[in-house]
Design goal:
The chain is of the alpha+beta class and 460 residues long. It has 3 domains: 257 residues, Spore Coat Polysaccharide Biosynthesis Protein SpsA, Chain A (Alpha-Beta Complex); 76 residues, no CATH class; 101 residues, Jelly Rolls. The protein is 21% helix and 33% strand. The protein has 10 helices and 29 strands. Strands 1, 2, 3, 4, 6, 7, 8, 9, 10, 11 and 12 form an 11-stranded mixed β-sheet that branches. Strands 19-20-21-28-23-26 form a 6-stranded antiparallel β-sheet. Strands 15-17-18 form a 3-stranded mixed β-sheet, covered by helices on one side. Strand 20 and strand 21 form a beta hairpin. The longest helix has 15 residues. The two termini are 38 Å apart.
Length: 460
């Protein structure tokens, strides 16, 4: 069985910890593993192969998160423009052998019981081998309007309703034979393709054309922006699942589950767990305050005479909202977009193919970063027009090229790169290289770069 992990979402309801270049599924809560990493690890025991579908802009973020997992048998579909789950799942099926069983899983869900999860997926896999499309259903505990609902009679799906109104959702709970749609599906690739041809032939044919125009290298498939320009953006639920009339089965999952779609969801499932730094006693002081969800970074947060709040502190932004209102954080994101703010797109830590960097301080005249370079990796040979750089080694060994000079630097040693000088940083060692970079100049944005050589074929 191949597990297909869908990981291209932006997670605007989880700002400020979620950004365009660091969506919620990749956020490492409390220095722990991200939702994406947990999804990979949760499915490895069940999978012969992992196929990841993600946005091309998140490629190096995905690869960075897989770093250290060992030799994972994996393949990738990179979308230049995300067109929702229907296109992504059809492409995954087209990228598979016809008799292959695919298990489609979102990358941003939290499931607490690994044993129960494996038992459920194995049952779904067995049904999928009999040419069924199989959904994994979740016990509906409240009238949620953000989930799809599956009406069932035992294993048989009677009907599928996507995101109903609250009154309708409440009636579903009263009837008792409805499950939330967990967004997890199992099917044989050939059977799924045949159902798409039968039910949604026009959309299927357009996806086939886009897939055939893809640039394929080794285990990677790059979907070009031009090929999907006129492709409808629609979920697999709206496009296909609501229209299926036969061979549609459901298997219930008896484990604590959350789609982690808002801070209220985090507060509900993560209290008193080690998953996220919620109400960390070392970083919070509570005076006559109760029922607050505090997600903190390094800073101390004190509350006095306040109740029922969600407080999210990151290095460059602070969110305060009432519990029950966190779904509306997306309105903050809309306002930031109107202001053309980088706070929508860029997190304080940015993944790069060679490692990552964290902005420590950003001023009009200077910027400081922590740079981490993985063993055996190197940055491009480059220069800058408007800034000078100072590099200080914190740990590890750095091989530094400045002009025609190449030298090795150890901890506590430094070098200087004047504006316009060609330079390169690489890690020849077997442990991470950690550097502090101080930039000084009139313009300090990331687009002030000229690349002469690059191991990752980047031009900007």
């Amino acid at each position: 069985m191949t597990t297909v992990i869908l990981s291209g979402g932006n997670g605007t309801r989880m700002w400020p910890i979620s950004r365009t270049l660091m969506p919620k599924q990749f956020v490492r809560f409390d220095n722990n593993r991200s939702l994406f990493q947990r999804t990979v690890l949760r499915n490895l025991p069940l999978s012969d192969k992992i196929m990841i579908v993600s946005n091309d802009a998140q490629k190096f973020l995905v690869l960075d998160q897989l770093y250290g997992f060992g030799n994972v048998n994996s393949s990738y579909i990179w979308e230049s423009i995300g067109k929702n789950s229907a296109a992504a799942i059809i492409m995954a099926a087209l990228n598979s052998d016809e008799d292959e069983i695919l298990c489609i899983v979102p990358s941003d869900h939290l499931i607490k019981d690994q044993s129960e999860y494996e038992k459920t997926i194995r049952k779904a896999e067995a049904l999928a081998k009999e040419n069924n499309i199989v959904a994994v259903g979740i016990e509906a505990t409240f009238p949620a309007t953000g989930y799809g609902y599956i009406c069932h009679d035992g294993e048989d799906v009677i009907s599928f309703t996507e995101k109903p109104e609250e009154d309708t959702a409440r009636s579903f709970l009263e009837q008792g034979n409805y499950l939330w749609n967990g967004g997890i599906y199992c099917f044989k690739a050939s059977h799924f393709i045949n159902e798409c041809k039968r039910v949604i032939p026009e959309l299927f044919e357009k996806v086939v054309q886009a897939f055939n125009a893809a640039v394929v290298t080794d285990n990677e498939c790059h979907i070009t922006a031009q090929s999907v320009e006129n492709l409808e953006s629609v979920s697999i639920d709206d496009a296909l699942m609501e229209k299926l009339s036969s061979n549609f089965k459901v298997v219930p999952l008896s484990a604590k589950w959350s789609d982690m779609g808002s801070f209220d969801a985090i507060d509900d499932i993560c209290e008193n767990t080690d998953y996220i730094n919620v109400n960390n006693n070392e970083n919070t002081i509570s005076i006559r305050s109760k029922n607050n969800c505090i997600i903190s970074s390094e800073r101390m947060i004190a509350t006095v005479d306040v109740n029922d709040l969600i407080i999210v502190d990151t290095p460059d932004a602070l969110l305060i909202t009432k519990k029950g209102s966190s779904q509306d954080v997306k309105e903050v994101v809309k306002e930031l977009k109107k202001r053309n703010s980088d706070l929508v797109t860029t997190p304080s830590t940015v993944a790069r193919p060679w490692g990552n960097y964290t902005v420590l301080e950003n001023n009009k005249a200077y910027k400081t970063k922590k740079i981490v370079v993985r063993p055996g990796k190197r940055l491009s040979l480059q220069s800058h027009f408007h800034r000078n750089e100072h590099w200080i080694v914190v740990s590890g060994t750095a091989r530094v090229t400045v002009g025609d000079e190449v030298k090795l630097l150890q901890a506590n040693e430094s070098t200087y790169i004047p504006a316009g000088e060609k330079h390169r940083l690489e890690n020849p060692g077997v442990i991470d290289l950690v550097m502090i970079e101080a930039q000084v100049g009139e313009y300090l944005e990331e687009d002030d770069i000229v690349r002469y050589e690059d191991d990752f074929n980047r031009v900007a």
